[in-house]
Hints:
Helix content is 51%, strand content 12%. It is α/β, with parallel strands linked by helices. The protein has one domain: SGNH hydrolase (Rossmann fold). Strand 4 (111-117), helix 7 and strand 5 form a beta-alpha-beta unit.
Amino acid sequence: MKIAFFGDSITEGFPGTAYIELLREKLSGHELLNFGKGGDTVLSLFKRIQNLDLPENLDISFVWVGVNDVIVKTSWIYPWLRRMRRQQWSRSVEEFRSHYRGLLDFLSVRTMHLLTAPPLFIGEDVGNEWNRRLEDLSRIISEQTDVCSNGDFIDLRGVLFPLLAGKDVCPFVPTTGIQAVRNVLFGSSQDNKDDQENGRELFYTIDGIHLNNEGARIVADVLFEAVQRKITDS
């Protein structure tokens, strides 16, 4: 099977641990195509994939995007970075809904099965302002996926959030320019990842956003089960 993954830096696998590499081990008999790009918003992803030379007859497409449409509101550095990279973000939930609808319409006719997931974290304190905003986008993603005849919503928030219940979660959110640049420059180093997790007492991310080893393992396990169901259905 040809399985394509569309998303931002979490899908690209830098910084942090790449969940796709764990999936490759589990799905060694299939072709996994990584179309993730750091910083992508729903609109920049939609524009970018229209210019990609996508394979014909994709069996499964997985879309995981949205966190960058909210992270831009946490610090001046993120809008600057998005503008530098020409990655325009949604200014409202209505814009996000429209852009996400266009993204799904584009992909749904190019793949047999379309899987989507909600943006996960901006900080592991699930009750903070930014995660509440992500919850609004999550509902939109679920609603828009339900409209697609070949779409299935994978509730990764519903898997990971309960695991944080009762834990002494760290309130850290990477909102300063120095933190953002540091994460991009050094986030792929295993030593640095361990230092960030231990120093900040994070459980599933290296910085409140990008997956650590445990977070990537959980995501890979959930996606593996979802893909296996589609393989069985085909």
